[in-house]
Amino acid sequence: MTEIDHKKILTERISARLGRRAVLKGMGAGIVAATAAGGFPAIARAQQSGHLKIASIKVIDTLDPHFTGFLSSIQVINNIHNGLLKIVYDGENLTFEPDLAETWDLEDDKTHVFKLRDGVKFHDGTTCDAEAVKFSLLRVKEGEPTSPHAWKLALLDEIEIVDPLTVKLHFSQPYAFLPVALNGSTGRAGTIVSPAAVEKYGTDYGRNPVGTGPFKFVSWRENDAIELEANTEYFEPDMPKLERVTFLLMNEASTAIAALFSGQIDGMNDCPMQLVNQVDANPNTTLYGEIEGNYTFLGMNCKKGPFTDINLRRAVAWAIDRETMVKQAYFGRAQQAYTPISPPMTDFFDPDIATSGRGQWFDLDKAREFRALAENQDEIEVTYMMAERGPVGTRTAQTIAPMLAQIGIKVNLELVEPATWLKRRNEGDFDLYDFEWVADLDPDEAIYPEFKSDGAWNFCGWVNTEFDDLCAQAQVILDPAERRKLYYQAEDLLMDEAPIGVMAHMPIYKVFSNKVEGFQYIPADLMNLHTVSKV
Amino acid sequence: MLIQALKKLGQTLVVLMIVSIATFGLLKLAPGDPVQIMLGAEYSQETYESMTRELGLDQPFLVQYADWAMNFVQGDWGTSYIARTDIFTYGFKEALPVTLTLAFFSLSFAILIGVPLGVLSAVKKDTIFDAGSAVFALTGTAFPSFLLGILLIWFFGVKLQLFPVMGYVSPWEDLRLGIYHMILPGLTLSTYFIAMITRLTRATLIEVMDEPYIAAARARGEPGWRVIWVHGVRNIAMPLVTILGLQLGTLIQGTVLTETVFNLPGIGQMLTSAVLGREYQVVQAGVMMTAFLFIGVNLLVDLSYPILDPRLRDRK
């Protein structure tokens, strides 16, 4: 009985969402892998050619997958390393498929079995086997210094090495979040690093990464460029196609666009919304981008100041005209958000959310009703802490201020530089601030750590134990339908008590010159160059 | 002479110490926490504390400063928290040459364009040419360099595709490509200086041309070009060099924006990212290098006076 359930769930998680293609694809991959495992050297190796230059606009802190929280770092890391699982996108659904693992099975609801591919080598020539997997997972879970992603493997009780190519992960509870924890874009707890290299470089591993990926790390020049070269021994057939890749580290997006248009570079990892129209109009470039797993919001301080008053918070949440926001602040590119769960979370997002009656939206009458219930009926003056985050950030604050003036709240905009902003946000020194949580693939990472009472990212300081319980329950259930029900209840509480006014789901754009072919877009802000070639 | 030199050296050391304490203190006073910045959104309290200890940020201010200063003097500039690289390599060997190249090209443009333009304006005083150069100079001084940079990029880089719009190639490795990459940033940064030198050359030359020795040269029947370039321009060299030395600060300040717009990995970019990331030691290294540069150049300016003006030479 139990076994049948697990199989059903596993099928759902791995392949069902892919539809009929999945079976073929899954089998195909199995056969290819088996051939590779059999040790036939006749596997088609790609002929590498071409040098791709990509502008990386945002900060890259380290290339150590276990210690970064930056998506721009992950974009590079993903080309050097592989994980146990990988994220696959077929144009409609996001799924998790085995990567370094050949198969991924659930023995029971707490035990995951990964069978590894045979013959996979790290760039330093050492073998990627069960020991390396155990080493990497333990490095995240209990390594010193502590990985910021350690919490993702907190429920992992034991890592059992069955044979050199089989790893069994025993969890203390069913853990639906596992695939995301292993792959989640903001940190790769399931990325496998070379134990020999970690031994050799210690904390400098992030500057000398050694993985199994399609590209090898060559050099990193500060404020200048990160160079990669093809790994000719890569285990997936016909990959990579490029000979060299350069990530140019740039601060100024408009310079990157100019370099792209003049042919000096081939692509950009992030095209800010204010420049998208310009790129769209250029016939020599192609834009990739969809609404990704994110939400932007106006945060209100529930711990001190005027917004401790729940009715004032509700008034603000209903006074934000999201349609105007999308037009003004997001250059018409974003999508109005009703709740935090975003479109790419296909198991959880309700396509009819607009008419479902759930969430928050613009209703000035309702906002005024709540305002009338607020304790303070005089004009209230509040401080809105703005960060220097380009035109989108500035416009967001400037658009919101007059909306709140309509319900008797006078907003003082205060622009602070990034380090100060971070400190003040983390210490709860604000009345209002806006922010975005990005690259979320599961509701568990989209709302739980952000709004858990005393949660590390709960900067608004909202407390609701019922919400905590609902999220905690959903975490240990594997069935998506049941999880969805719980998350909807949790979201309803969140939206009603309004520590935030949710605003929009944003598209994230990447641009390539038309000379670049074969880029597979994944709506998790990834820049996988495995299949990319340059004419 | 020796006493003077020692005095100068002592002054320099005092200045450097004041500069280093001031930067260190100001950075510490500014709100913001390097550990929070490094760890991003996801971290636990233990991670935070272990990182703080690892970086020595739990120590009192004076201990941190003394540690830094002792190591710095001995040539150990520390390790960048974020880059995890040796700051001496990053700052001195990698970033400094880029900024020096940029400064060299800008100064060359400023002198090669500014001086002839100024001389022409002085000679053709009160003509349409003089008025034109005055307008150019005023515009050049008033025009924000980042805007000019972006305009140059779009016109010469994207429209005409004449020059690369970004990046640095070391002229030592590839002279042609190196120069090629420096033309747009060099022009951007030097516009202000071209304008300034043009005006300065014009004003001082007009004064010099009224001096009796110019009249004497003319009376001797020397050709017009010789009167201007040999007797005239030589005598404006001193104010020119003095002003250029003092304006070096402005030039270095300008490299910050120019390096950002043209994506050059120099001291300007290093300082910007270090300030934003609250990388105290990197900022210190950057500031110390620029302070050294500034003091060094002004020392050279002082030393050049006897060469430029024989009357100042020691005749003993």
UniProtKB/TrEMBL annotation, chain A:
Lineage top rank: taxon: Bacteria
Main localization of the protein described in the UniProt heading: periplasm
Keyword Transport (UniProt): yes
Domain Solute-binding protein family: start-end pairs: 96-457
A UniProt-annotated Pfam family: SBP_bac_5
Signal peptide: none
Keywords: Signal, Transport
GO molecular function terms attached to this record: peptide transmembrane transporter activity
Any one Gene Ontology cellular component term annotated for this protein: outer membrane-bounded periplasmic space
Intracellular or extracellular location(s): Periplasm
Protein name: Peptide ABC transporter substrate-binding protein
Organism name: Puniceibacterium antarcticum
TrEMBL record, chain B:
Ranges for domain ABC transmembrane type-1: 96-301
Transmembrane residue ranges: 12-30, 102-123, 135-157, 177-195, 236-262, 282-308
GO cellular component: plasma membrane
Membrane topology of this protein: Multi-pass membrane protein
Keyword Transmembrane: yes
Predominant localisation class: membrane
GO biological process, one term: transmembrane transport
Pfam families for the chain: BPD_transp_1 (PF00528), BPD_transp_1_N (PF19300)
Key words of the record: Cell membrane, Membrane, Transmembrane, Transmembrane helix, Transport
UniProt keyword annotation of Membrane present: yes
Subcellular location: Cell membrane
Family: Belongs to the binding-protein-dependent transport system permease family.
Stated name of the protein: ABC transporter permease
